Amino acid sequence: GWGGWWFWDPVENASFMPWLVGTALIHSLAATEKRGVFKAWTVLLAVFSFSLSLLGTFLVRSGVLTSVHAFASDPARGLFILVFLALVVGGSLLLYAWRAPAIRSLGGFELVSREAGLLLNNILLVVTAATILLGTLYPLVIDALGLGKLSVGPPYFNTVFIPLTAPLAVLVGIGALTRWKRDHLGRLLRTLGPVFALALALGLAWPLSMAHYAPAAAIGAVLGLWAMFSAAQGLWARTRPTQRWRDLCATPGSVWGMSLAHFGLGIFIIGLAFTSSYTIEKDLRMSAGDSYQIGDYTYRFDGVSDRRGPNYLSQTGTVTVLKGVRTAAVLKPEKRVYLVQRMPMTEAGIDAGFTRDLYVALGEPLADGNSWAVRLYYKPYVRWIWLGPLVMVLGGIFAAGDRRYRILRRAVPADLPGATAGQG
Q: At a CB cut-off of 8 Å and minimum separation 6, what does 94 contact?
């Protein structure tokens, strides 16, 4: 991700939409399993989630869109996928329309309850997926109707995505600690008030450690810490003062999974906010001995040397990164040409850190023969964008290992034929 981690590319969107609806499905299933509500809605979410997966396959494989991530341009294969998509979606919706009246939810719930929070969560996730679907397919529809060509890019997606997902981060902290069926605002305020105050104080102070104060980073830090602290509070609230460790060990895997997923989401939000607010990229003309300062780091270009690899020829640059008088890293960006296919490739020099990554990409030699085009990157907290989803995956593993989902081996009844075969 040294060139960027998200571009709202149509293929990226095609993989993101099923994830959003699938996340809504997981939360709806929790309410259906626990309280018997949202049954018909849960089935519909399952249909939509699978349908969007097929739609993504069609977009990627058919060649109807142009993207660096598209895998193939095969109209025949695309037509097959489109027909299959129509059969699956049409058949599923017809079956749903036929059987939905027989699917009845049990019980009710108050406005202040976990069910209400999960319902709002579902609405926001589905509306977000719908807005992304609109932005992804609208140019294709306009082109197919012969009305011209247009592009829907980051300005649209950022404008509609952020206002819809910011409330989700708030709900993450509230919903996990809200009781089923009925709860009271007073209890929630007593439980979550100190958590929110701590997240607010630390989140607003965090950007003070950076080169300048970015309000967007502060908001992201508050939301991320809120999700992390509330997830930890949810686990802590399930324990008794005299046996914290024992109660934590006895906590069901599904609860651990939920808490880890929400904690990972908080890490991701912080990484997203700080990377977006403080990333610095510079395209420079540099000769041996030239330096350029970005924040606390000074990048010194020491020149380029030729090197031969096992199956390629390389022009390798050397860039020394200084922090004050101390050498923070020595980066080796390369321009490679592979011998068989004669394919040029750029290999960035990367120094990874927990709170920042430093990248250097080597461009082309310039006309004077002594200078090179060099791109310098400073990306704070970009690793948190990947760390957060890894924690979420760990949460999924914990949830999948919950005792309720284990398949127990049943003993074969002794009176069945062959049950005692081989004994004796």
A: none
Q: From CA 115, how far away is CA 128, in angstroms rounded? A: 20
Query: Distance (Å, rounded) from C-alpha 154 to C-alpha 161?
Result: 10
Distances 141 to 57, 114, 131, 135, 284 between C-alpha atoms, Å: 18, 39, 15, 11, 41
Locate tokens 């020149």: which residue? 303
Q: At what angle do helices 114-144 and 154-175 cross, to 10 degrees?
A: 170
- Please calculate the CA angle 13-14-16 and round it to the nearest 5 degrees: 60
Of the candidates 134, 3, 142, 151, the residue with the CA atom closest to the CA atom of residue 67: 151
> Residue 172: which residues within 8 A CB-CB, separation 6 or more?
226, 227, 230, 231, 262, 265, 266
163 vs 219: CA distance, rounded Å: 13
pLDDT digits (tens, 9 = 90+) for 306-359: 988 888 889 999 999 999 889 999 999 999 988 887 778 888 999 999 999 999
Is residue 145 helix, strand or coil? coil
- Segment 85-124, tens digit of pLDDT: 889 888 988 988 888 888 877 778 888 889 999 999 999 9
What is the value of pTM for the model shown?
Answer: 0.86
Closest to 374 (Cα-Cα) out of 291, 308, 310:
291
